[in-house]
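Our example copied in:
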Amino acid sequence: MFDDFLQSYDVFQKRGVEDPLLEILRLFDLLSNGALRELDLSALKPKGIDLDYIAQRRKEGVPLEYILGAATFMGLTLSCSPDTLIPRQETELLVNIALDFIEKRQKSEEDVTVIDMGTGCGNTAVSLAMNSARAKILASDVCPAAVEVARRNVDKHDLQDRVLLFCGDLFSPFCGSEYQERIDVVVCNPPYMPTGSLSKLPREVIDHEPRLALDAGSYGVDFYRRLIADSLPILKPKGVLVFEIGAGQEKLVAKLLDKRKGYEDTGYFDDGSCIRVISTVKRADAKLN
């Protein structure tokens, strides 16, 4: 929606329309059957919204989500802080693909267990739980502060019985024998930015969002190497690993999967512009070491 709004504004501005912002607001209000005029902005005052403060913080480049302490994802309102990445719409593709795999496994498995690796604010874990009736989600993050934000979101949506939170580096919380080849699906939105490309990100991203959740080493594949290798001992035979990638990284990731030789039936999913998600199935005869 925001992209459409900005594109429309740009067209009106270039055409010399007087007060293009007002005209675009009126246009979108008409196209939405009056939805914009129904917005009750008086709700800002009871919530303690200080527009002067917000304007100043935005001038400083602080993302709105961090100023308000809230973000939206798949129709949910979630707590968000500078300790977590801001949930983005492109990650909805990852969640929807993971949900498809969960649904398929639930047809043959009474209980389905999912690990959400690098949960951040918990947007993926909460969305998976809200959209799958019985799946148990084990959500983990290396950052204790991020886990606490995720906990707030789990509590807010009353998912304490189906979303369990862990803190540790990658799969370290799941090293016990109770997890060995017990997981149906591993889902992950990992860091995938090459270190050298971080400086090219918008300032409000690189200056405010956690670098740990962005930086993936020289070629942007450091996290993939560990994720691909360390998922094998955890996944059941024929279990699924599904994860987000950066634009143009599918060939690098395909090479990593081929080198590991523990996966098959790899799928590539695009968002209309590029490959954004990869899924792959653990071979029944995969070697764990």
Remarks:
- The chain has a mean pLDDT of 91.
